[in-house]
Amino acid sequence: xxxxxxxxxFATLAAANPHPQTELEFTNTFELLAAVLLSAQxxxxxxxxxxxxxxxRAWTPQRMLALGLDGLTEAIRTIGLYRTKARNLYETCRxxxxxxxxxxxxxxxxxxxxPGVGRKTANVVLNVAFGEPTMAVDTHIFRVxxxxxxxxxxxxxxxxxxxxxxxxxxxxxxxxxxxxLHGRYVCLARSPRCAACSVQxxxxxxxxxxxxxxxN
Length: 216
What we know:
The chain has eleven helices and no strands. By secondary structure, the protein is mainly alpha-helical. The chain folds into two domains: 3-20 and 135-215, Endonuclease Iii, domain 2 (Orthogonal Bundle), CATH 1.10.1670; 29-128, Hypothetical protein, domain 2 (Endonuclease III, domain 1, Orthogonal Bundle), CATH 1.10.340.30. The longest helix has 19 residues, at 82-100. It is elongated, with a radius of gyration of 19 Å. The model has no long low-confidence stretch (mean pLDDT 94).
């Protein structure tokens, strides 16, 4: 993607969705942290189905600990890798209560010390809960950033760093939401919907894909 195309690329996405939001359901910062932790290698739809009932019973780390590990494990058994995730979430709740007064910490270092919380999860919490302009690079963002030429990189960290350099400041806070949604619904992995893409004219691959379809 040409440098001069980056601002109109994001301006187009912003015009279509001025206030993008995560599709995970939550009502407080702890629920957000729990939902993102559970969403690794799982869909937001699947996580939401499980957490609606879970959060109705346990919306704080104290209440989640009161469920017991077995109760928590049973509550999320429909989510992939649920046993490991239950152990991580349960231990995270214990640390939140014992070391942070039951509150979710606001620093990356403290977040990444929690079991099951890696850089991507920390970035989501810092962005969604605390308004920091972080880039939570998941499979969708990794694909969109590389395919469009917006921020090419061989691994998520490289893409994250290049996005932070490339995205104009005015769009940085919401950029990862726009890119995730674009990858989830338009810039699909196997059959990207280039003909319906509002930003394909800025994309490194979009115009050639359109010409290829027309030629066939």
